[in-house]
Amino acid sequence: MEKSKKIPKATIKRLSLYYRQLELLEFDGYRMVSSEKLAWLCQVNPAQVRKDLGYFGEFGIRGVGYDVRDLQREIKTILAVNRSWRMAIAGVGNLGSALLQHQNFPARGFHFVAAFDVDRDKIGMTLPSGLRVRDIRELRQVAEDLEVEIGVITTPPSVAQEVADLFLASHISALLNFSPTQIHVPDCCLVENIDFTIKLDILTYKLKHELDE
Amino acid sequence: MEKSKKIPKATIKRLSLYYRQLELLEFDGYRMVSSEKLAWLCQVNPAQVRKDLGYFGEFGIRGVGYDVRDLQREIKTILAVNRSWRMAIAGVGNLGSALLQHQNFPARGFHFVAAFDVDRDKIGMTLPSGLRVRDIRELRQVAEDLEVEIGVITTPPSVAQEVADLFLASHISALLNFSPTQIHVPDCCLVENIDFTIKLDILTYKLKHELDE
DNA sequence: CATTGTGAACTCATTCACAGCG
DNA sequence: CGCTGTGAATGAGTTCACAATG
User: Fold this and answer.
1) What is the chain B residue with the closest CA to A208?
2) How far A94 CA lies from chain B's nearest CA (Å)?
3) Quick check: A201 and B19 CB within 8 A?
4) How many domains does chain A have?
5) Are residue B68 and residue B19 in the same domain, yes or no?
6) CATH code of the domain in which B24 resides
7) Which of A184, B39, B119, B171 sits most deeply, having the most CB atoms within 10 A of its CB?
8) What residue spans of A28-138 are helical by DSSP H?
9) CA-to-CA distance for B90 and B19, rounded, in angstroms?
10) Is residue B18 part of a domain?
């Protein structure tokens, strides 16, 4: 195993990618896979695959490749997705509702254990999942009581920071922010942003500039 | 202006970020902003802000800073978001519906001009926006007739590639893929992926490993 | 002997440090 | 004098190329 150097963030992203391709490979009946094939599926360089895995151990068999199922298990452990996680969501609008109903999350061990909103008409409502929408003012207390680990923000950007602060007060240490604004948190808290508009801006930029060259 | 070197992709991402902070600054009544302040708001290094802008021109006033409104306009032009764009969406499930209703898109000039699904119960349905859901089999023809520029994929991953191929057949050159799978397209087509599960995996990885150091 | 694992080379991106200028 | 603009220095991440090996 490579001496434990700093692991690029991009490596983690790709492990997640590899993992999903391995699931598909297993489903399709493959038992072994080479770095070349896995790389092709994920649209990366084969050396990249080997190096990424090399940060965490030696999982392959020289001259043969990687055992599809074993490698899945290894990556699951590395990413810590071999257990379940407790999430709470703030903002039960269109997007929030969509996430709450998303089959993919529970299937991967990510469970919403609470949902909050400010809207009086939504508070008290029971969601398709059986979860009851609570008043956002209960967030701090409830998130603490239910031992929520990941807070998901799907509010309008104007209140995203406020909501983040509520999550912080409940000692949550990870936030998934869907609002198109930057939220400021202390170093002890992790934040990942999912911002559609940035992706669209990248597309329009490239659409404009690819013609110009 | 810096000689036109290759522009880092990350620079484009940040321009999008800068732009939104500039909107907020204008809203709050600021007329000028320094690279230091803008950098703080976006959580990047001030030199980074100046270098990013430097790729495209000299927009600042030495000793003073940047004119909030002027810089907005410049970035809008660079990102090509100073015009409107025509989008079509495939997959009118929870997520698709949420995107179709999202206020932010039309506000920024991104307009859905068509929506497609395979589900017989959904086809023909009129959405809150007034848009009628069409049969996915019409995609190629309709996308071409309506001159769709950006295709949005919110189908289950199992059919994402098929749908991408339909979009390609209609000569679309940019795709926004929300399904958690890699889609393969020729070089002439741009793809941006928005994958929630990757972001969650990054959080769980870090949650596990931050404790270990 | 095909394919992994990995140091070394390379490419790309960020930050520094200061000259240039309003 | 303060803040921008940018070459040069540093740092991070990717790819190469080949030795190691099941």
Assistant:
1) B80
2) 5
3) yes
4) 2
5) yes
6) 1.10.10.10
7) B39
8) 35-42, 46-54, 68-79, 94-101, 104-107
9) 29
10) yes
Each residue's pLDDT tens digit, B85-125? 999 999 999 999 999 999 899 999 999 999 999 999 999 99
Task: Please check whether residues A74 and A89 belong to one and the same domain.
Answer: no
Which pLDDT tens digit goes with each residue over A111-162? Answer: 999 999 999 999 999 999 999 999 999 999 999 999 999 999 999 999 999 9
Q: Using an 8 Å CB-CB cutoff, list chain A residues near B202.
A: 9, 12-13, 16, 192
Can you tell me which residue has its alpha carbon closest to the C1' of nucleotide C15? B47
CA B151 to chain centre: 12
- Write the burial class of residue A183 (CB in 10 Å: 0-12 exposed, 13-18 middle, 19+ buried): buried
Q: Is the CB of A184 under 7 A from strand D?
A: no
Amino acid at B109: G
* Residues A94 and A168 occupy one common structural domain: yes
Compare CB distances from B194 to A24, A99, A194 and report the shortest one's residue.
Answer: A194
Please tell me whether residue A181 adopts helix, strand or coil conformation.
coil
Q: What is the pTM of this model?
A: 0.95
B81 contacts: CB under 8 Å, gap ≥ 6: A201, A204, B19, B108, B109
Task: Return d(Cα A54, Cα A77) in angstroms, integer.
Answer: 15
**Tokens standing for residue A62:** 């020289």
Question: CB of B96 within 8 A of CB of B159?
Answer: no
Q: Is B193 exposed, middle or buried (0-12, 13-18, 19+ CB in 10 A)?
A: middle
Distance CA(B194)–CA(A182), nearest Å, equals: 18
Write the pLDDT tens digit of every residue in B151-205. Answer: 999 999 999 999 999 999 999 999 999 999 999 999 999 999 999 999 999 999 9
B chain contacts of residue A13, beta-carbon cutoff 8 Å: 198, 202
- Residue A15 placed within a domain: yes
